[in-house]
Amino acid sequence: MKIRLIEKSIKKIKTDIEIILLNDIDDAEDRKLLENLDFKAVDESCVLLGDLKKIYVAYEDESYDSFAIAIATGIKKFQSTNFTSAKLNLVDCKNEQLKAIVEGSFLGAYTFDNYKSKKDNKNKQELNIVVKEKTKELEAIFESSKIISKAVNKTRDMVNTAPADFYPAVMADLAKELALDCGIDCKVYGERYLEKNDMNAMHSVGIASIHESKLIHLTYKPANAKKKIVLVGKGLTYDSGGLSLKPADYMVTMKSDKSGGCAVLSTLWAIAKLGLPYEVHGIVGAVENMIGGDAYKPDDILRAKNGKTIEVRNTDAEGRLVLADCLCYAQDEIEDIDYIFDYATLTGACVVGVGQYTTGIMGNNEILKRNAVLAALKSGEYATTLDFNRFLKKTIKSEIADISNIASTRYGGAITAGLFLDNFVYEENKEKWIHFDIAGPAFVEKAWGYNPYGGSGAGVRMTIGFLQNLNK
Ligand code: BES
Ligand code: ZN
Ligand code: ZN
Fold it and tell me: Which tens digits make up the pLDDT trace of 269-285?
């Protein structure tokens, strides 16, 4: 769908249909008719009045969520018709409202039909967002919201792609393409590099796959950068569980285990397109966790890049092994880091704990974690903190190695995974690190809000929001 910002009197714009957002039914021109249809301005209610060529959608309050969900609902209705053009009257629009509307429009219009033999023609449709005056400020908001939404949709495309078509080398090629498109640097390393550089934890996870593991490093370095930020992503292009094989039902959707890595790639692309004044690195461990005669095993002892030894007790707790080496790589290669964030669909426990809509935020710096939660909520994502404590920390001790890759307790699995990662964050970076467990929101099994079935692009908006906020 084409989405444009235009300046014109709403009456003068000729489109096939008009989308009208409504908070109070008394404000509607067609109040009587809406009453007869028992339309209530609550939740996501939406009605198409074919003869009048109008779509009415309710928004509950002035929040980002309400506007974004309302316009996405209106667009879905528009997409269910054969009308080709629509307009939305936003003449009394505030800046924050435009951001929510633009992002809700792009995210709500998203469809993924790469694997459908019959494509619909919905990309021929257009939405005209009509403002009173196309000021520089509104135009800038429109453009930045468009870049952010495109980055989310790029992440969704990658996550939705089947594992046979999206393995580590494909991810690396895509990273190169994205880098070329936004003018940033991209380096890719294979298994020889992992071996030579003592990245035995990451290397072991991918050993049984026919696809070579790839370490991807994107760098965006504007002149006079004010800060240095490192984003690390778990890029498990498939997680079968390895020898600790997942039960059949749990394996379905595990193509989405690359979501953290995909979010990092698209976020780097967006940061460069937005021209943010920070040096930003994106590091992704792209690996496939499979079974085979050469697979790594429960009982193996792996040595991570920082020299710490890890007892493997479950090969399905593989993401933390990949991230351990990627975190070390980042800290060894990049000096004077201001923030180091990692993104991972790390634990089912996080989904159980906080629900499928919410990201779990962990780390050692209370203020930083709070700011990350606030940035997430403001950007339209749900997030909450999960606290470390000294007792859970003891549960990942190992009898035979420095640390075990699973805890000795059944409880608090998201936190013990975060505590495992903490072992690979160097002393000088302890307060600069945040771990985002996106296992819940990264993949949508039942559509919600403006998220259709499939990858959601979790992590992208909150990270960009956090960085944009640093600027203020
Ligand atoms: N990729 C999974 C976590 C996951 C589960 C993501 C559900 C999204 C939805 C991860 O690699 C994993 O398997 N974790 C195990 C850890 C356990 C063995 C300690 C889990 O959560 O069960
Ligand atoms: Zn796993
Ligand atoms: Zn995994």
Answer: 999 999 999 999 999 99
